[in-house]
Amino acid sequence: MTGTRRTVAVLFLLPAFVLLGALVVYPIGYSVLRSLYDRSGDTFTGIDNYRALFTDDGIRTALRNNVIWVVFAPTVATALGLVFAVLTERVRWGTAFKLVVFMPMAISMLAAGIIFRLVYDQDPDRGVANAVWVGVHDTFAESSAFPKAHPGRDSPLEPAPGGGFRTRAVVHTGDAVALPLVGVAPDRIPGSARPAAVPAAEPGRISGTTWQDFTRGRGSGEPGGVDPSELGYPGMRIEAVKDGRVVASTRAADDGTFTLPASADGARLLLPASNFRLPYNGLNWLGASLVTPSIIGSYVWMWAGFAMVLISAGLAGIPRDLLEAARVDGANEWQVFRRITVPLLAPVLAVVAVTLMINVLKVFDLVFIIAPGSSQDDANVLALELYRKGFSEGRPGVASAIAVFLLLLVVPVMWFNVRRLRREVRR
């Protein structure tokens, strides 16, 4: 058609064909061939390696996780991209917001994996996710300030059924009760703590002091006695229990002192287990049950910006006359969004979702970096299992079978995407 001789055309196309053959055709063909041989590559095994795809526990877990990835990751990322694109369309600072949302795309998967490995750290002092979670929890549920406190030697306290500690004997009005404890590190005692006061008897009441019965320095202090440098336990809850019922309760003042009414006469004093429970340490984000959703969250953080940019481009092409006509006819914003915006964006949403599906089928870096060794088996995906089978376990035949299986999964999705793109070009 252009008058170019066929030989010249072939010469110009030859470099592209060589590169295509070396980088695409040959690796695919070799993988298919290698998947039919055993570990050594010398013995033909037929489809034995493909049988392992459905009998090996690790591969089946990876396949199940890939299904979860394909269903949830593209759906959530596309939905967030749609929401961001629609909500920022009319605001003045929408471009700046889109820039911030899109910025994670500039970060490699390796760097994102390292970032989120720290975000999901179990220690609330290091992991942002647990710092926020623990902060919310502690807003509604009080944490104990004395998780490691316990009675010392020759203490008037003994372990109580159900946890906590109680007095060995009953108490009566007019008694001054000493409740000494040890085991709280000095830097863990609440900042409101004041020097402990010696318990003083009060007529018609039960009084006492609970405090840190420990003085620094070998041989310093009197066990069971309040020394000048010892601090009270502010906020310690004390209950009076008689016949299995709590008849009175109170909390210790900053100097550890407390008083109970006459109704506590003849009861045992109980320091309930709530005083000593370990502080809430958040969720185990990278444990067996949450590791896959957590990694999907990091993926969505990276790719929601990609979805937003493509959807914003599609949104800019929607005729404004249709939107304004719907509003004139009495439709509210939700109806406009649901009945007009989303249907008109359906081709763009499909392309974004399918593109992300192809991408998640190949996800490797995030799972390999974020999931710790203890839960990597639970977070396993096909791309990671391919690596493990080929390099860690020395089974290249099975690894090649996984690669071919991944190719077979990706090809229909790619064909659908290319066909839809061509259809859009023809329009």
Protein described:
This protein has two domains: 22-131 and 285-426, MetI-like (MetI-like fold, Orthogonal Bundle); 157-275, no CATH class. The chain is 50% helix and 9% strand. It contains twelve helices and eight strands. The protein has a five-stranded antiparallel beta sheet, with no helix packed on it. A three-stranded mixed beta sheet has the order 3-4-7, with no helix packed on it. The protein starts with 5 loop residues before the first helix and ends with a helix.
State the end-to-end distance: 26 Å
Give the spatial strand order of the biggest sheet: 1-2-8-5-6
Silhouette = elongated
For the secondary structure, the number of strands is: 8
SS content category: alpha+beta
CATH class of the largest domain: Mainly Alpha
* Unreliable spans: none
Number of domains: 2
For the report, how would you describe the main beta sheet?
A: 5 strands, antiparallel
Query: What is the second-level CATH architecture of the largest domain?
Result: Orthogonal Bundle
CATH fold field value of the largest domain: MetI-like fold
Instruction: Assign the CATH superfamily of the largest domain.
Output: MetI-like
**Multimeric status of the protein:** single chain
Order of helices and strands: HHHHHHEEEEEEEEHHHHHH
Helix content: 40-55%
pLDDT averaged residue by residue: 88
